[in-house]
Amino acid sequence: MSALLVKVKLRGETRTIVAQVDIRGLFERAANDTQDVDDADVLECDVQSSQVNSRKRPTDNDSDDKSTPEATKQNYHKRKRAEKRQEMYNSMRHHPTERTLQETVDLAEPLQLEFSTCPLPVMGGGYIGANEKSNRPDAMKQYTVDELVNEHGFTDFWWDGIETIPVLDNDGRIFMLLAGRPMDPAYVKAATRAFELIMKEGALTEFEPKVCQNKRGDFPAFSVGSLYGIGHQVPKEKSNGKYTAMLQRIVANKDVRRLAAFMSSSVQLWSPRLFHHCDSRLTTMFEKLKPPGVKKLFPKSFFPTAAINFGGKVRTFKHRDTKNFAPGWCSVMALGSFDPDVSGKFIVWDLKLIIRFPHAATINIPSALFTHSNSPIQYVPGELLHWIDNGGCTDKELAKENPKKYAEMQEKKKTRWEEGRALWATFEEIRGIGRKGSQVSNCR
To answer: What is the pLDDT of residues 69-119, one digit of tens each?
Structure first.
């Protein structure tokens, strides 16, 4: 292995790269990779010293010479295609194609559980989950799969991480979704590159001890995006101090953005009412209420907030994310190099369910209501929607400025949870989307 100047012919274009590689491996990847060269995992190199600079941070701008007319033309068409895709998202969001409906919805086999979602723990007028009783020693306790199955009556559910499995309650509502992943091999490569980026950024960052411990586990974890809570008059962009620039690089990465877009699309396809409920309100915030400094986190995702975990071997404590929107789905993705038959399990304690959770797979769950072991990757804070529903003000401000609307909002507390639960589509409704003449809007 040494740093070499190598010419690679890919898609009819010869490019020159400097990388630490073995020659055979490089040309095998050049022949098989479906991505452009600047998508490949090529490390930064110092040409003069011919030594790999392992301390240099990865960027999306690391690419080959694009000054030739051919490269300029390719970049122009690539940019125009990206702009067209963004325009389509802005007008239709993640509108499912016929192929998606046939391959995902029509072939899906649901997991029916004997479980009622009526008495789930909510508070805050139905916006957030009820507070947990703090028992850290119990939350931190580790169990083997055999212990949970044999001594506590859990079910060990084998899942390939690819196919989509809707999880149904007693009323046939899809309250949780094993969303899987696209069949496209390039998506798995994007997930792998995203994991490697997070690992490298983490390795180059000196984390303070206080950020290495949180209620979800003993590892560095950060929230990014829009938040609103106690003491806030308006929503704010999450402040992460000296870690902000590092987190912004991760959020801006094209592979991370692709993963975020899939998570968002899975919510629109399988819970369109929930998606529309959140997306319409968040659009109002970003485009009309416009709190200072608050902006969309990802260009093709409705989620306003995300959590990024560092540390490699991340094991979360048993917990609920009670500040998230109560009926809202949090999208969780498994990333890393591990054996899913041995580790990387997703545990839903209330359902006594252990789910095999492979790399690049996504699970959507109302994490404010169900005790689980893992962390949300993208989510919607409940109090953020509360502020938006108030018209961009606190309850106290609303009571003073518009007593009539305040009284209406207080009255809605009695029914908000049932209305929120009704945002979950039934499996039959989603199946109807794939039938001729049926539209997604029918489920809104």
So the answer is: 777 777 877 788 878 778 877 777 787 888 888 888 988 999 999 999 988
Q: How far is CA 337 from CA 250, 260, 286, 361, in A?
A: 19, 20, 37, 13
pLDDT tens digits, 180-228? 999 999 999 999 999 999 999 999 999 998 887 766 667 788 999 999 9
Structure-block tokens of residue 52: 């790999």
238: confidence class by pLDDT, cuts 50, 70, 90: very high
Tell me how far apart the alpha carbons of residues 180 and 175 are, in angstroms, rounded to a whole number: 16
Q: How far apart (Å, rounded) are the C-alpha atoms in residues 348 and 176?
A: 11
Parallel, antiparallel or unpaired: strands 111-112 and 165-168: parallel
Distance (Å, whole) CA 367 – CA 325: 9
CA pair distance 191, 57, nearest whole angstrom: 18
Question: What distance in Å separates the CA atoms of residue 179 and residue 361, rounded to the nearest whole number?
Answer: 7
Q: Does residue 401 contact residue 114 with C-beta atoms inside 8 Å?
A: no
The torsion angles phi and psi of 238, rounded to 5 degrees, stand at: -60, 125
Could you give the count of Cα atoms lying within 13 Å of 259 in the half-sphere of its Cβ? 28
**CA-CA distance, 75 to 83, in Å (whole number)?**
12
> What are the helix (H) ranges across 43-160?
69-92, 98-100, 136-140, 145-152
Among left, alpha and beta (phi > 0; psi -120 to 50; other), residue 143 is beta
Residue pair 119/290 in contact (Cβ under 8 Å)? The answer is no
pTM: predicted TM-score of the whole model, two decimal places: 0.79
Which one, of 326, 291, 324, 294, lies nearest residue 307 by Cα?
324
Q: Are 122 and 129 in contact (CB under 8 A)?
A: yes
Indicate the burial class of 2 (C-beta count within 10 angstroms; 0-12, 13-18, 19 or more): exposed
Q: How long, in residues, is the chain?
A: 444
CA-based end-to-end distance of the chain: 56
pLDDT band at 136 (very low <50, low <70, confident <90, very high): low
What residues are paired with 226 via a beta bridge? 237
Both tokens of 131, joined, read 């507070």
Supply the Cα-derived Rg of the chain in whole angstroms: 23
The secondary structure of residue 128, as a DSSP letter, is E
